[in-house]
Input
Amino acid sequence: MEKQTNKVVVDIQNLKKSFGDLKVLDGITLQLHEKENLVVLGKSGSGKSVLIKCIVSLLKHDKGSITVGKHELTDINDEDLVKVRRKIGFLFQGAALYDSMTVRENLTFALSRLKEKFSKQEINDKIIEALENVGLPDAIDKMPSELSGGMKKRIGLARTLVVHPDIILYDEPTTGLDPITSNEISDLINETKEKFNNSSIIITHDMNCVKTVADRIVMIKDGKVYKEGNLEEFITNEDEYIQSFFK
Amino acid sequence: MLKKLHKRDKISSNSSSFINTIKEESISFFIHMANATEYLKLVFKNFFSKRFEFQEFLKQCYQMGNKSVGLISVTGIIIGLVLTIQSRPPLVKFGAVAMLPGMVAISIIREMGPVITALICAGKIGSSMGAELGSMRVSEQIDAMEVSNTHPINFLVIPRVFAAIVMIPLLTLYADAIGIFGSWLGINIKDDMSLRLFINQAFTDLDFMDIIPAVIKSFFFGAVIGLVGCYKGYNAGRGTESVGIAANSAVVTASLLLIIVDLIAVQITDLL
Output
């Protein structure tokens, strides 16, 4: 496995986001390094998903800055936003497969939206490669409604991987899955990093997943970074709130 | 005395809650209007500035036609039949039964065909747009599309709106033809008239000014159904119940707007 470097690929400074009177993010500062799996931990409603949605500009932050590569997202223009999103893959909590399309069409859709143009054969090869990477080449002509929860997540990951993003944002990748499938997805996150050398932010509160994938952990509480460190530092920490996650 | 004061308190609290309700409803109305304006601006801006999704447009045209043609056939034939059966007795009374084909054809082409088709499509197509886009919103498919650098307005809304603008007039013309055929069946319940004679009589009383405004009106009906159906679905809330709300609200709002557009169209046609 290639080792992570100190190069920062996503830099978040003093990020604030509110919905009406509800402050969700209240000055978050964190960095994602190249070839790093960064796990963001926190209880439900702590703003973890809001954080990664701000990174792809699905939600506009109120204050602070988010820099992806050399692009700062505050007041970013459409053209630069396309470039930023080209670098980022997003695995949604429910996989968000387009349910009117087959698996093949879901992956083709992702490829057809790129500036680069591919021949039919190239598209087919890339789809098969992506499906083989997630271990589901046989699902190619299935509809999303024919897939189980774990399979949907894998296909969602294949759709993310087919465009070779530099950064992958995982929104609770193991939620709602049985322990065996959860472990498979966690292993897949590691395999993806090993094979494509990408950086990832993984939002989760599945401690098995945290233990398997985390290079570094950031814990969020009350909209702020509560603790940052590696797995060892979290496990040995005696803080009651931190231990409530690791017990 | 105490009873009187209590009653006065109750009246004042009722009136203040009534004023609050009006205030809240007004604010919500203006927020809706602002959102709708923003949405329309986005649809027009993207239509002119981004590439048109022609494949998706064709797919939507096919689905709209395919979904509605059966229902429109049945409704059209029944409307023609009912209109003829109901209109016959008064015309017989005045010895004007020969005017029946023309009268029914004019009322079907000018009013019944476009309005009934539009209302059926508001129910069938508008609700399905509201539900489909609403469920895509709830299951984050719209967000996924946005992350894949595809503007959802461009891929989901514009093809649907234009498919409705194209398909509603075509379905209206089809409903008109079926309705007129139904009218011929209705006449043949009591009388004996050949289809050729019926069509001849019906079209003698028709001119272009009966057909053209009705077709133009149905383009606007298509725009209303497409824009409202997509708006309601696209702006659905996050919970699953919002899918039902979006579908229901799409039908109710589109139906109301169709009647208003019809009223305006009739006034304009009257001036011509």
